Here is the input.
Amino acid sequence: MTTQITHDEILAAIKKVPLIPTSGTQLLQLANQKDHNLTDIINIIKCDAALTGYILKTVNSAAMSRGKEITSLDRAVSLVGEDMILSIVFSEAAAQLFHADLDGYAANQGDLWRHNLRSAIAAKKIAPYAKLEVNPDTAFTCGLMHDLGKAIISHYLEGTTEEMVAAVDHGDFKDYSVAEHEKIGFNHSEIGFELAKHWGLPEPLPSVIRYHHHPQEGNIELQPLLFVVHLADIVSMMTGSGTGADSMRHSIDPAYSDYIDLSRDDIARIIFEVEIEFNTIMSSLSGEGEPK
Ligand SMILES: [Fe+2]
Ligand SMILES: [Fe+2]
Here is the structure.
């Protein structure tokens, strides 16, 4: 038996989550700037001793350094590239959330991390196909953070999985996030949006987190990015990185073709490329970067 939760309860739960470091917010802001480069990234990381230490430790894990110790941040960042750096930073900064059990979705530990990472890679690869320009790095960071609300809502959904799955499959609700909202008064996108605001994440992150399942509800100027992340989320689920009960129980908005020009062959190639890059990042992190 579940009950509706209040906005105050959500805010109280969010306040218990550790804040992400300022350097993390700055990196997200930077990724959204069109002409940024690795030097800009290095300059932000350099100001955060803990983050510098964590990146060097992770890059020096056997899989990445191949036995040669890397002591310079510049070398580490240029060796692994921006996607990997952002993956390392946020796997650490939001470890508690990425590592959540997601019992309310009957998911496995680590599923949220794998799903979001795969969505991030897919979003970056889909972005160049948008009919209006979408910054691939913004798409990557939005994919990486889009489902973090699940880590908070999961607790309130415990015990509902069977009933929710049956109701969505029966057509009682349009999709799983609508079912969440009806069941407890909020869905994971709305809670993720509150979390993003609490953390002070820069736009467009809060909006993309809020509307990733129903992109047409977002601002018109954000539609291309919203549809890129919407599609990337579906690709992530299709390729085996879901988060338990809700996997493939989110409908795809066919209006994506108004914003993204993708043929079947393009989708097949993107799925293949996402698989390769996902496996590369996962094996490079090899337990070091993945939340513990
Ligand atoms: Fe979602
Ligand atoms: Fe998702």
Q: What stands out?
A: Residues 264-285 form the longest helix (22 residues). The chain is about 65% helix and 0% strand. Residues 7-18+95-285 form a domain with the Hypothetical protein af1432 fold (CATH 1.10.3210.10).
